Amino acid sequence: MDKSCCPETTGEGFLVNSADWNEEVARRLAELNHIQLSDAHWEIILFIRHYYMQFKHLPNARVFTKAIARELGEEKGNSRYLHLLFPEGPLRYACKLAGLPKPPTCL
User: Fold this and answer.
1) Residues 18-75: pLDDT tens digits?
2) Could you count the other beta carbons within 10 Å of the beta carbon of residue 26?
3) Residues annotated as part of the active site
4) What is the pTM assigned to this prediction?
5) What is the CATH number of the domain that holds 26?
6) Which of 41, 47, 48, 82 could cross-link with 37 by S-S, CB 3.0 to 4.6 Å?
7) What is d(CA 104, CA 107) in angstroms, rounded to the nearest whole number?
8) 3-state secondary structure 9-66
9) CA–CA distance, 57 with 79 (Å, rounded to integer)
10) How far apart are CA 60 and CA 5, in angstroms?
11) Calpha distance 25→5 (Å, rounded)
Protein backbone atom coordinates (compact mmCIF):
# COMPACT_ATOMS: atom_id res chain seq x y z
CA MET A 1 0.00 0.00 0.00
CA ASP A 2 1.25 3.48 -0.82
CA LYS A 3 2.39 4.84 2.54
CA SER A 4 1.82 8.45 1.44
CA CYS A 5 -1.94 7.93 1.51
CA CYS A 6 -2.51 5.06 3.92
CA PRO A 7 -1.15 3.58 7.13
CA GLU A 8 1.19 0.59 7.20
CA THR A 9 -0.27 -2.83 6.40
CA THR A 10 0.90 -6.40 6.73
CA GLY A 11 1.89 -8.44 3.69
CA GLU A 12 -1.75 -9.61 3.52
CA GLY A 13 -3.15 -6.08 3.58
CA PHE A 14 -4.36 -5.85 7.19
CA LEU A 15 -3.55 -2.67 9.12
CA VAL A 16 -0.54 -3.04 11.39
CA ASN A 17 -2.10 -0.62 13.88
CA SER A 18 -5.91 -0.73 14.04
CA ALA A 19 -5.91 2.75 15.64
CA ASP A 20 -4.90 4.10 12.20
CA TRP A 21 -8.33 3.15 10.80
CA ASN A 22 -10.86 5.67 9.58
CA GLU A 23 -13.45 5.64 6.81
CA GLU A 24 -11.01 7.03 4.25
CA VAL A 25 -8.56 4.23 5.04
CA ALA A 26 -11.43 1.74 4.63
CA ARG A 27 -12.26 3.22 1.22
CA ARG A 28 -8.62 2.93 0.12
CA LEU A 29 -8.35 -0.67 1.39
CA ALA A 30 -11.56 -1.52 -0.47
CA GLU A 31 -10.18 0.03 -3.65
CA LEU A 32 -6.96 -1.99 -3.33
CA ASN A 33 -9.06 -5.13 -2.88
CA HIS A 34 -11.34 -4.32 -5.85
CA ILE A 35 -14.41 -3.86 -3.66
CA GLN A 36 -16.90 -1.11 -4.49
CA LEU A 37 -18.25 -0.09 -1.08
CA SER A 38 -22.00 0.30 -0.68
CA ASP A 39 -24.17 1.02 2.36
CA ALA A 40 -24.52 -2.75 2.76
CA HIS A 41 -20.73 -3.13 3.02
CA TRP A 42 -20.50 -0.32 5.56
CA GLU A 43 -23.19 -1.96 7.67
CA ILE A 44 -21.10 -5.13 7.95
CA ILE A 45 -17.80 -3.25 8.40
CA LEU A 46 -19.22 -1.16 11.24
CA PHE A 47 -20.89 -4.25 12.72
CA ILE A 48 -17.59 -6.17 12.95
CA ARG A 49 -15.79 -3.12 14.41
CA HIS A 50 -18.47 -2.84 17.11
CA TYR A 51 -18.31 -6.59 17.77
CA TYR A 52 -14.52 -6.46 18.18
CA MET A 53 -14.67 -3.44 20.50
CA GLN A 54 -17.40 -5.07 22.60
CA PHE A 55 -15.97 -8.59 22.91
CA LYS A 56 -12.21 -7.89 22.40
CA HIS A 57 -11.86 -10.80 19.97
CA LEU A 58 -12.91 -11.79 16.48
CA PRO A 59 -15.50 -14.49 15.92
CA ASN A 60 -15.11 -17.46 13.62
CA ALA A 61 -17.12 -17.33 10.38
CA ARG A 62 -20.09 -19.21 11.78
CA VAL A 63 -20.38 -17.03 14.90
CA PHE A 64 -19.92 -13.93 12.69
CA THR A 65 -22.85 -14.95 10.49
CA LYS A 66 -25.07 -15.81 13.47
CA ALA A 67 -24.24 -12.52 15.22
CA ILE A 68 -25.19 -10.58 12.08
CA ALA A 69 -28.48 -12.52 11.88
CA ARG A 70 -29.24 -11.66 15.51
CA GLU A 71 -28.36 -7.99 15.11
CA LEU A 72 -29.32 -7.16 11.50
CA GLY A 73 -31.80 -9.90 10.59
CA GLU A 74 -31.78 -13.28 8.89
CA GLU A 75 -31.75 -11.74 5.40
CA LYS A 76 -28.29 -10.30 6.14
CA GLY A 77 -27.02 -12.95 8.52
CA ASN A 78 -26.52 -15.70 5.97
CA SER A 79 -23.60 -16.89 3.90
CA ARG A 80 -25.19 -16.13 0.54
CA TYR A 81 -25.74 -12.43 1.36
CA LEU A 82 -22.29 -12.02 2.93
CA HIS A 83 -20.55 -13.70 -0.02
CA LEU A 84 -22.31 -11.33 -2.41
CA LEU A 85 -20.68 -8.45 -0.53
CA PHE A 86 -17.31 -10.10 0.07
CA PRO A 87 -16.89 -12.93 -2.47
CA GLU A 88 -13.33 -13.75 -1.39
CA GLY A 89 -14.32 -14.33 2.25
CA PRO A 90 -16.81 -12.29 4.27
CA LEU A 91 -15.10 -12.41 7.67
CA ARG A 92 -11.60 -11.92 6.29
CA TYR A 93 -12.49 -8.94 4.10
CA ALA A 94 -14.89 -7.33 6.59
CA CYS A 95 -12.07 -7.41 9.15
CA LYS A 96 -9.51 -6.13 6.66
CA LEU A 97 -11.67 -3.18 5.61
CA ALA A 98 -12.62 -2.50 9.24
CA GLY A 99 -8.96 -2.13 10.18
CA LEU A 100 -9.05 -5.17 12.45
CA PRO A 101 -6.53 -8.00 12.75
CA LYS A 102 -6.67 -11.02 10.49
CA PRO A 103 -9.16 -13.46 12.03
CA PRO A 104 -7.32 -16.41 13.56
CA THR A 105 -9.52 -18.89 11.67
CA CYS A 106 -8.57 -17.42 8.26
CA LEU A 107 -5.73 -19.04 6.36
Assistant:
1) 999 999 999 999 999 999 999 999 999 999 999 999 999 999 999 999 999 999 999 9
2) 22
3) 106
4) 0.91
5) 1.10.10.370
6) 41
7) 8
8) ECCCCCECCHHHCCHHHHHHHHHHCCCCCCHHHHHHHHHHHHHHHHHCCCCCHHHHHH
9) 21
10) 31
11) 8
